[in-house]
């Protein structure tokens, strides 16, 4: 069968017609998308018109603030120049209001807006949907079930376990002193806080610091991954143990309860609303939040004391008068070190372990100064900028523990190292206890000084990290 030239021309004409139609449809869709983006940008511009901000590029927004390694410094500049809050544009159609004023913080944290999905979604495969990622009624139910795990009766026995883990770390530091002129402390502290969590949360009797001290294994995420390998087995064994031991009061009469006990008893009482998946998510969330954030806090506290030797020595004298050689430290001691506590809080002000959190407004909001935002808007609560805001903290870059003297006064939402409102950190007392134990025992054993050639460069990740680690010179005290 032959094909004529005319048939070919007709075929090509049909194809050309289809391509023309497709091109027109594509152009229409492109124009519709462009119009949608334009209208959305206009809505955003109207929403933030009452809030001045630094000049931004029409397409790239304020992306340069995030890409030049100066994000924290840029946040400080905003707090100094633009009252209460300022918009930060990311590309042409994404914007969030950066908040660094205590009155604004109080209004937002007093509501029940969900955490902004984009800021935390990537964490779900790691830790599941526990307290950190949950919202709404499910979050409230979990929070209520987990609150008994942080009662002081549960926390009291943990102090000795914390001290054991810290002593192991200090022993390793003593061994390493002869090998290096300075020591990177964050990796060691991260392993120590993980070791503490395993002991306190799961009554684990091993020594994760000794098991995992490899160059690759020193960093927190690697340590966290390895820890998760144990949790399923531990949960299974504990379930069987609790079934044999009986009810909560019987178990309490035999031994102290840990975090996992509380979780499993909560599951027994709320089987329909607290599944095995929920339980695992809360375990993983506690592991992540409990060792990452506390490791950041302790590391920066020790760095702050290393750079302020006069305050370091005053803390050491207070601790020596209280503990002697530090052979034992108890729950009762933790409230008897006021100056050390002041220094810890001042370091947490300068270096908040969680630099900020995001919220998506579930309804319109009006701030105390009359400015407002519509439903659906994203806000970033910058605790770092709040803590460095000169309108809230005079001379904010100066390390001044007297800000936290017992007779001092401040706004209820001026200092938020553990966030605030109903969604504040459920483990804040646990974290403060561990920080006090770690700082007290470290100062009894070592004199700290910064490494002038490797000063840390703070960078805001999920927790406040240093781009180049935190290096200190340690001198063993006799």
State the main characteristics.
single chain, 478 residues, alpha+beta, 4-stranded mixed β-sheet, 3-stranded antiparallel β-sheet, 19 helices, 9% strand
From the alpha carbons, calculate the radius of gyration and give it in angstroms: 27 Å
Per the CATH scheme, the topology name is Cytochrome p450
- Weakly predicted, low-confidence segments: 213-219
The class by helix and strand makeup works out as alpha+beta
Gap between N and C termini? 103 Å
Structure description:
The chain is α+β, with helices and mostly antiparallel strands and 478 residues long. It has a single domain (122-476), classed as Cytochrome p450 (Orthogonal Bundle). Helices cover 54% and strands 9% of the residues. Strands 1-2-7-4 form a 4-stranded mixed sheet. Strands 3-11-8 form a 3-stranded antiparallel sheet. It has a two-stranded antiparallel sheet with strand order 5-6. Helix 9 runs parallel beside helix 19 (428-445) and helix 15 packs across helix 17 (338-350). It is globular.
